[in-house]
Structure formats: structure tokens, C-alpha cells
Design a protein that fits this description.
alpha+beta, MDM2, two-stranded antiparallel sheet
Length: 153
């Protein structure tokens, strides 16, 4: 049975526009930050001197630090060939990990001890005690006044 041709100006002759994800290029565009603050995993952290020997001295986000440590481990073949979950630390990594052998699951715990917020990314303003310290100091002052026989106003 012969097929019928659609008239030249009809919709059937034009291809359908793609809808949904990645209509233009097939890939979704990376999300833009739009001026938002980076989250905790994206904030640059200052590595300690021991960790800087492995990843460099410039501040890096936590994910990049872990990636660079893994690159160092693979480059120097520091994974245990019998149990790939174990890392056999060389001198530089032993200073970071505090042990000659650690598992990959313990690695992030050891790395966290060597990452600090830099001057610009500090959590608290310098010289400002946190709320718990202020509360405890106020409570001590009240108890001192009570024991001295003074009245609280």
C-alpha cells in the first residue's frame, strides 16, 4: 500500500523539537553557582605542613585533597596488592596518617586532622568566644555573686 505524502506546509514534514533534559546538546549544562557561597565540601582548606608535602601548599577543597592523595598513592603504588583496601604509607603519608598501614575508610579521618580553615574561611571571628563559653562564664559569675552574699539584680 503506498504511503501518502504530507503537504509541504504541514507539521508532519518538520522534525519534532526535543524536550526535556539536554535538548540542545545532549548534555545538561553544569549548574551555575549564581553568586552563592560554596558549601562545606567546596570551601578551600589549608593543608598542614605534613599534608602539604603530598598535595601542595595552596588551599584546596576537601574533595580535591582526597583526589590528590589518591593520585599520590596510585603513582607510588602504595596500595597493598593482597588487600587493595589497605594503604601502605611511605614516609610522607606516615606523617599524615600516624601509622604505617591504614584502610581507605580511615583515610578521611586522618586527612581531616590536617585540614584547617584558612584566614578568610574561619568559622568564628577571632577573639569571639563561642556561645557555650559565654554561657558558662555567665553562670560562674552568678554563682560567685551568690556565694559572696551579693544579690543578683
Amino acid at each position: 500500500m503506498p504511503t501518502k505524502k504530507a503537504p509541504a506546509g504541514s507539521q508532519a514534514a518538520t522534525p519534532k523539537a526535543q524536550s526535556g533534559k539536554g535538548a540542545a546538546s545532549g548534555k545538561a549544562a553544569p549548574p551555575s553557582t549564581g553568586g552563592k557561597k560554596p558549601n562545606a565540601l567546596q570551601k578551600p582548606l589549608q593543608p598542614s605542613k605534613e599534608l602539604a608535602a603530598v598535595v601542595g601548599t595552596e588551599p584546596l577543597p576537601r574533595g580535591e585533597v582526597v583526589s590528590k592523595v589518591w593520585a599520590y598513592i596510585k603513582q607510588h603504588q602504595l596500595q597493598n596488592p593482597e588487600n587493595r583496601r589497605e594503604i601502605l604509607a611511605d614516609d610522607k603519608l606516615e606523617a599524615v596518617f600516624g601509622a604505617k598501614k591504614v584502610t581507605m575508610f580511615e583515610m578521611n579521618k586522618h586527612l581531616a586532622r590536617h585540614l584547617k580553615y584558612g584566614r578568610s574561611g574561619s568559622r568564628r571571628r577571632q577573639g569571639q568566644p563561642n556561645t557555650v563559653v559565654r554561657w558558662a562564664a555567665a553562670r560562674r559569675n552568678r554563682s560567685v555573686l551568690r556565694t559572696a552574699g551579693g544579690a543578683l539584680d
